[in-house]
Design brief:
six-stranded mixed beta sheet, 24% strand
Length: 193
């Protein structure tokens, strides 16, 4: 049976580890025999701006780009980024988001206010949302920088791949001295809520 191409968008703010998350996913899916395309779309990542990565996989993937309405999953490292990219979510799609709020420059300078009740607003727009505090779980694992693996852990619950498959991809994707920390972060995310 032919598998239709699946689309995952990873969105966040520069420096949050979204690129490692996309590389780990790409490796995991290639290990499973899928054709995989990963595309990194950088914004002003060095200045805390939006960073977007596309991961597409299936029997045969021709383009690395995800268009509006095509994302099966949006994995968001920050709440406003989940709202910003919602138009890319397919009607059956799922948003997995950290509830952390990082103020963008217009909010920092006082030119705008950070929107309130974003999870409620995203749900009201018709999206399925799995929102949780990934930052607190990352800190519990040992480092705030492990938010990426907490989110990947939560994403793993939506796939029928074995735990061992995910753990192998982690071991192949992170430096040896960080494997235990990343495994712990992944498992906390996988078991969250």
């Amino acid at each position: 049976m032919k598998l239709r191409t699946q689309n995952i968008m990873i969105v966040g703010v520069g420096g949050q580890g979204s690129l490692l998350a996309s590389k780990l996913l790409g490796r995991l899916l290639m290990n499973e025999g899928y054709d995989v395309k990963v595309s990194e779309v950088h914004g002003m990542s060095q200045r805390g701006g939006s960073v977007v990565t596309y991961v597409r996989f299936g029997d045969k993937v021709s383009s690395p780009v995800i268009d509006e309405g095509e994302a099966d999953y949006i994995v968001s490292f920050e709440l406003l980024e989940a709202a910003r990219w919602i138009k890319y979510l397919s009607p059956e799609g799922q948003i997995i988001t950290n509830t952390q709020q990082i103020e963008p420059m217009p909010v920092i300078t006082g030119a705008a206010k950070y929107p309130e009740e974003l999870v409620t607003k995203i749900k009201a727009a018709g999206a399925k949302v799995d929102a949780f505090n990934a930052l607190s779980l990352a800190e519990r694992a040992g480092s705030a920088k492990a938010v990426n693996l907490v989110l990947i852990g939560k994403l793993s619950k939506y796939f029928s791949l074995s735990l061992e498959t995910w753990l192998k991809a982690i071991e192949e994707s992170v430096p040896a001295k960080f494997i235990e920390l990343n495994r712990k972060a992944f498992e906390l995310g996988r078991n969250a809520g």
